[in-house]
Amino acid sequence: MSISVEKHGHIWTMIIDRPEKKNAVDRDTADQLYEAFAEFDQEEKARVAVLWGRGGTFCAGADLGSVARLAEGRGNRLDPDMSAPGPMGPSRMVLSKPIIAAVSGYAVAGGLELACWCDIRVVEKTAVFGVYCRRFGVPLIDGGTQRLPRIIGQGRALDMILTGRSVDAQEALEMGLANYVVEQGSAREKAERLATKIAEFPQFCLRSDRQAVYSGLDQTLSDGMAEEFRLGLQVIQSGESSKGARRFVDGER
Fold first, then answer.
1. Are 169 and 162 in contact (CB under 8 A)?
2. Which helix (H) or strand (E) holds 182?
3. Taking the model in full, what pTM does it have?
């Protein structure tokens, strides 16, 4: 198995476990990663996932050895059906729960796309991002051309996509690609602490606000506001908000 899952209460840590390949993703790895996240989203007790790569590398992208075998039908999946698994596995999934990327070493090509698929990125100070597949004629087909501009803006995204240059952790923080920069070797620990904090919040409200953000990205402001209100009203009507307000009135802070 090239994907392992460690479950600690409400937190699931998904581990890409191919350090000898710099955690590059072949078809089997992509399928396992897809299945792990599908199980996470369906499991009621699971609240937040962390995605991490063993051995000091987050993910070096698609396994180019596998890509080279596409003509033999042995490479990563290339299904045009957007409801099917993507070449990197879960990249087309729309989960109902938060995912945090714990990035060490390289998060490049498809690895960058997986990091962008996550909601939050905790990045070690020695980490490197880049569209390294630019060098080999391998396109971004796991959401990189769509998610990266939404995170850092069109100008910065096009710079990364067209030049294929390396972006270090500090620059990633400045452009908004990294949310937190931490010491080398500590990304997983920080991400899991952050996940634990997120898991403690009232979950219906948290997931509703998260959904409103994603739903509104391609809507007008007025339509997005209406969607936000619709989702928020469901939370209020569920009683979760009144219970929280009562805790505040009773002195909880």
1. no
2. strand 180-182
3. 0.94
